[in-house]
Amino acid sequence: MGGRLAGEVVLVTGAARGIGRAIAAKAAEEGAAVALLDVLADQVAATAADLQQTGAKVAAAVGDITDENAVRWSVDQLVDELGPITVLINNAGKNAYADATKMTVDEWDSVFDVDLKGAWLMARQVLPAMIAARRGSIVNIASIHAHLTTAGMFPYAAAKAGLVGMTRSLALDVAPHNLRVNAVSPGFIATDLLEEFFDTIPGSRETALDAHPLGRIGTPEDVAEVVCFLASEAAAFVTGANWSVDGGLGIRYA
């Protein structure tokens, strides 16, 4: 298959649904072999089956990105099926709606484990092979909350800001090995997590729609297009960047 990602092996975390599923589908369309990783066993298997029907080369694994042993086992399984990972998309994440004065340490850790530590564990697992081959790209799915946020979502913004910072640090460290690391910061995208946000924050749906210069909520496919571009050689001179995919929301003065 031709396409911007022909010959690549693309690993997508949180691939069972939403943005992750859309990225996996776009990567397959662009010619990549696609490795799917998620904790949702039935849903990730269904995503794999759907992509295989398109003729794509696909493998799926069930694993927890916050557990370093599970990360190692899952990546090893996927590499055995598809070959060395050449593109990592750190998409798995979780929302947070906590009171800073009442949040427990365990609740804090659960947010940072998924939204930040898991991305590092995944990168740590795949980078040695990328460095040895002097070939590879990582795209971290951050959020508009990394630089703009709203009340009631503590400490999600801190975790996503950390992910953008990690992106910059990794980009500098691996650049001598011909590797690139970038971030994408989606705004309001039509996913289950967004519906959870709308259900949690009264009036947020109407406020969001009114605030968007483009007048609509984004789609997972909108994000997938940008992610696959950054992952590909079409973006060969882009590293350490954080691209907003937010319908212009972040440029508003008020």
UniProtKB/TrEMBL annotation:
EC nos: 1.1.1.47
InterPro entries: NAD(P)-bd_dom_sf (IPR036291), Sc_DH/Rdtase_CS (IPR020904), SDR_fam (IPR002347)
GO molecular function: glucose 1-dehydrogenase [NAD(P)+] activity
UniProt entry keywords in alphabetical sequence: Oxidoreductase
Pfam family, one: adh_short_C2
UniProt keyword Electron transport present: no
PROSITE patterns: ADH_SHORT
Record family assignment: Belongs to the short-chain dehydrogenases/reductases (SDR) family.
Protein name: Glucose 1-dehydrogenase
